[in-house]
Amino acid sequence: MAGRWMELGKYQARGIEGGVAMAIHLDSEVMKRGIKSPITSKRGLSARMKYLSEKKGGAEAMAAAGITAQPRTVKKWVNGESTPRPDNLAKIDAAYWSLKGRNLAPRLKQLLDNNGAGTEIEIYPVDQSQVPEKYQRDIDVRRINLRNVWEDFVDAWVEDDFRALDEIWDEVLNQLGSDYDSYTYVQHVGFAVPQ
Hints:
Blueprint: E1 16-17, H1 18-31, H2 42-54, H3 58-64, H4 71-79, H5 86-113, E2 119-125, E3 142-146, H6 150-158, H7 162-174, E4 185-191
Antiparallel strand pairs: 1-4, 2-3, 2-4
Helix pairs in contact: 1-7, 2-3, 2-5, 3-5, 5-6, 6-7
């Protein structure tokens, strides 16, 4: 996917691939539904460790995040008897959010599919604020209702499958008409996920 932005950044335009932008937005939606206390607080660590130790897939999520501590050490973390090193705190946080997203995935698919009606997204074009005026393009924010992509999108998001995210974004671009090439890269993609 290069299109019109084959040389993105040549004139200081800034953006990211659209599928990645959708994934970043979904990350933020999941964070609204998770533990609010920071991992560095006693409450935040305790809540994350409880979730990871009680939910199916918690041990796998910790292993995937790179936590190699012995089971007795993890048990001490769960019981609040010791505090992980900063590098392990970051890995615990990553494991928690990964498992939380995976566990929310079925509900997210249902909410975004909206009984077949889909969900409207807003596509914000690349940031051209640093581009010399003579090279700037007139590109508007676009709104489009997406149907029949959400299940595949959430699956790709859960698996961090960037190739699939890119393919899904190509499907979105095809719905934009002749303007599609202007939105290969974007500044942001927004959409609402009902609670």
